[in-house]
Design a protein that fits this description.
CATH superfamily: P-loop containing nucleotide triphosphate hydrolases
Largest sheet: 5 strands, parallel
Structural class: alpha/beta
Number of strands: 5
Distance between the termini: 34 Å
Helix content: 55-70%
CATH topology: Rossmann fold
Shape: globular
Bound molecules: adenosine-5'-diphosphate, shikimate-3-phosphate, magnesium ion
Length: about 200
């Protein structure tokens, strides 16, 4: 990268942070789409604090996500998730990676719309399957047919994720490439919405 290119992208980042103000960048999408890993990279690139709602839930409850599901059930987990995300969004800007079910909650969507810019990390079923197979930490996929579960969740959730401010299709590309695309998509969205405001 030459010096001119580097300083142009620094100027782009500064403009993006300026437009963002106190709003947070919020990643939504299905399990395995890369919200946690890409969110961390986006935060490092922009120099913003990173928070993952699942990690925050695990910190406050001192339990893992599977333990929480096991001990209290999904509805309790969802209630805690809603409260934790609302609190995280009170102070920004940050990069917030949500758990895959969080955006299905109407109050959470309203909180994200009020305090953030949302990006849907969209992926196809084969890629999601490959990526979730690496870990056993997702209670909804502890099922004899995890692929069938993911397929049903795609049908149920994709129309809702589509309400996000921007979409990035994640595919067989490096995390750095996808993180750069997320930043570009946010920049485009904010530029377009500031032009509408004028
Ligand atoms: N662009 C990518 N290239 C390679 N591996 C990826 C990419 N994005 C995510 N992964 C891997 O896929 C798995 C799931 O990613 P994660 O960030 O936990 O997704 P989510 O938080 O959306 O469930 C992790 O092992 C992660 O390292
Ligand atoms: O899709 C979901 O309902 C869930 C996704 C998980 O997070 P990731 O999307 O980061 O895997 C985690 O919050 C929990 O297992 C439930
Ligand atoms: Mg995650």
């Amino acid at each position: 990268m030459n010096a001119q290119h580097a300083s142009a992208s620094q100027a782009d980042r500064a403009a993006l942070l300026d437009r963002l103000g106190k709003r947070s960048i919020v990643l939504v999408g299905l399990m395995g789409a890369g919200k946690t890993s890409i969110g961390r990279k986006v935060a490092a690139t922009l120099g913003l604090p990173f928070v993952d709602s699942d990690h925050e839930i695990e910190d406050v409850s001192r339990m893992t996500i599977p333990e929480l599901f096991e001990a209290y059930g999904e509805p309790e987990f969802r209630a805690l998730e809603q409260r934790v995300i609302a609190r995280i969004l009170e102070t920004g800007p940050r990069v917030l990676s949500t758990g895959g079910g969080a955006y299905m909650n109407e109050q959470t969507r309203a909180a994200i719309a009020g305090h953030g810019v949302s990006v849907w990390l969209k992926a196809d079923l084969d890629l999601l399957m490959e990526r979730v197979s690496k870990k056993q930490n997702r209670p909804l996929l502890r099922d004899p047919d995890p692929r069938g579960v993911l397929r049903r969740l795609m049908d149920e959730r994709y129309p809702v994720y589509a309400l996000a401010d921007a979409t990035v299709v994640t595919r067989d590309e490096s995390k750095d490439v996808i993180a750069a695309e997320v930043i570009e998509a946010i920049g485009r969205h904010m530029k377009a919405s500031s032009e509408v405001d004028q």
